[in-house]
C-alpha cells in the first residue's frame, strides 16, 4: 500500500527535513507543488484533498489559516507549528507520554507536533509529576540551549551571513511560545521560569531542569522513575552521567530521532539537574512528525527514522 503525503511548507527548514526522511520510502508518495504554486491556496487545497495525511510546516498564522480552510474536509493533519498544541481537538504528538495519547494519535484527524524545547522539558517532567516525585506546583526553572536552526530560515540566514555570531539568551520576559504546552502537558499547576539560549552552531539541543530542593539520595528514585516510564521506548532512553563524561555536547544526537534523559548531581549533598538531549530538528521537529505520521497510518513507528 502506498500512502500520499503533502507537506505544506516543504521548502522550509522543517519541511525539507521531513521530505528527506520520507523521500526514499516506497510506501509513501509525496505530493509536491512547484515554486509557482507552493503558496497558492487552490493548489494547496487540492493537494490536501488528494493526501492521506497533510503535514503543516508553516508559521503559526499560516497554519491557523489553512486549518480553517480545510474545515469539514476530513483531511488528516499533522501541524508542526505552535498553533494547536494546547487545543482540545488536537492530539499532542508525543506518543511516549502514555498509551492513551498514542491511541489518540493513531486514530486522530488532528495531531500537533510538540515544540523542540517542550519535547525535552515534558519528557523529563511528565513522568515525575505523574508519580508525585515533583509536585505540580514546584518552583521550577527550565534552561536550554539550541542550535540556530531552531529559529528557522530567518535565523539560519542571520548566522550564515555573519549578521549574528551568537551565542545569546532570549525570551527572558517569560512569554516564550512553548510555556503553555509545557505547563499543560507536563501537568504543572505553577508556571516555570524558562530561559532558552542559542549557540553559534547549527543543530542540537540540551534542556536542563535544576532540582535544588532534592534531598540527598533522592536522585536514584528520579532516575528509576524515568527509566520505568520509558522502558521499551524506541526513541527515548535514560542514560547515566558517565555516558557523557564531564562535557555534554548538544550535537551528539544530530540526525537522529532519539532523545536521551539523564539525572546529574551529588547524592551526598542533594540537589540535581535533569537533562534532556535531542536534535531540535529530529525528535524536536521532523523526526517526531514522521513518527506521528507512521502511527497515524498504522505503520511501524520507526520507519524512515
Ligand atoms: N526549526 C525548528 O527547529 C522547528 C520549527 N518548528 C515549527 O515548524 C514550522 C515551520 O518552521 P521552520 O521550518 O523552522 O520555518 P521556515 O521559516 O524555515 O519555513 C517555513 C516555510 O513556510 C513557508 N510559508 C510561509 N507562509 C506560507 C503560506 N501562507 N503558504 C505556504 N507556505 C508558506 C515559507 O515560505 P518562504 O520560503 O517563502 O519563506 C517557508 O518555506 C513553524 O511553525 C515552526 O515554529 C517546530 C519545531 C522545530
Ligand atoms: C532557537 C529558536 O528560535 N527556537 C524557536 C523554537 C523552535 C521550535 O521548536 O519551536 P516550534 O516548534 O514551536 O516552532 C523559538 O525559540 O522560538
UniProtKB/TrEMBL annotation:
The gene it comes from is argC
- Describe the location of the Semialdehyde dehydrogenase NAD-binding domain by residue ranges: 4-104
* Family to which the UniProt record says this protein belongs: Belongs to the NAGSA dehydrogenase family. Type 2 subfamily.
One Gene Ontology molecular-function label:
N-acetyl-gamma-glutamyl-phosphate reductase activity
Which terms are listed as keywords in the entry? Answer: Amino-acid biosynthesis, Arginine biosynthesis, Cytoplasm, NADP, Oxidoreductase
Where is the protein localized? Cytoplasm
Q: Which reaction does it catalyse?
A: N-acetyl-L-glutamate 5-semialdehyde + phosphate + NADP(+) = N-acetyl-L-glutamyl 5-phosphate + NADPH + H(+)
Asked whether the UniProt record includes Transmembrane helix among its keywords, one would answer no
Q: What NCBIfam families does the database record attribute to this sequence?
A: argC_other
Record-listed E.C. numbers: 1.2.1.38
From the Swiss-Prot or TrEMBL record, give the protein name.
N-acetyl-gamma-glutamyl-phosphate reductase
Residues at the active site = 116
Q: What is its main location?
A: cytoplasm
Q: In which pathway does it act?
A: Amino-acid biosynthesis; L-arginine biosynthesis; N(2)-acetyl-L-ornithine from L-glutamate: step 3/4
Task: Please explain the role this protein plays, according to its UniProt record.
Answer: Catalyzes the NADPH-dependent reduction of N-acetyl-5-glutamyl phosphate to yield N-acetyl-L-glutamate 5-semialdehyde.
